[in-house]
Amino acid sequence: MGFFIIFIGLALLGENIGLYHVEIDFWSFWPILIIAFGLSLLSRGSWLSLLIALVVIALVITLVAISFYSNFDWFKEQGIRRVEAELISIPYLLGAKSALIKVKTGAGKLSIDGGGGGLVSGRFDSNFLKLETESRLKDGVQEVILETKGSWGTFRKKPRNDLDLSISSSLPVDLYLKTGAMKMEIDLTEIKARTVEIESGASSLRLALGDLAENSELRIKSGASAIDISVPSSVGARLELKGGLVTKSLKGFKEVGDGVYETDNYRTADKKTEIFLNIGVSSLRVSQD
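The chain above was modelled as a monomer; its predicted structure follows.
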């Protein structure tokens, strides 16, 4: 039973940090509780009972392993293909006054900066995923969804998932990123980013905030991470930090409460940003340049 619980925990951990995707109904394993009860009775008997118990344990572990492996996306038939490049071009929709951009992807690399043509432009390179895009207008808000879909193949080649995006500075933007284990380079200095929300697994993140929006908000929820955030000197910043073991360097910030930090110009600055971090074992660097 102990080995089974450890096995389930490791499987869930691997999915949560984006190493793979597996679809398992864990409630289907409830018969193992009955097996465990039977094993506890067998363990009180002779050496033959102990031998039977060991055989049953081996059989259960084998069945569970087969169940997991048969659901791993990388064991499906398609295999990893050669790297294919796909250009991204999403134009403005007539009547759009602001934009909500959502990016959902797994492990790989993600870079975001300003400029480019249209509302969102860029390039996607992968040898095992396809990028699906959607753009719609509702109440003056253009919602753009970019989501990678597909399955891992065999390990004949190194899997690649690189997404490079440029976002226009013409409209105020709310940005939502949900990723797996990802290396991220995000430059918002030329983007009117009002809110930025990042949810990721084990990641490396370098993020430069801008001052094009009057007020902005940044929220990051991440596992084991290396995070580097720069704040322009023209913006007053307030930082709330929650998390596990965090090695931090907060240049230009002073502590004003339990896990709360502010820059010297937070109260007086015309433009302000609120930063909320909920991170696990991490290296954190935040500086006001």
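The chain has two domains: 2-71, 84-288.
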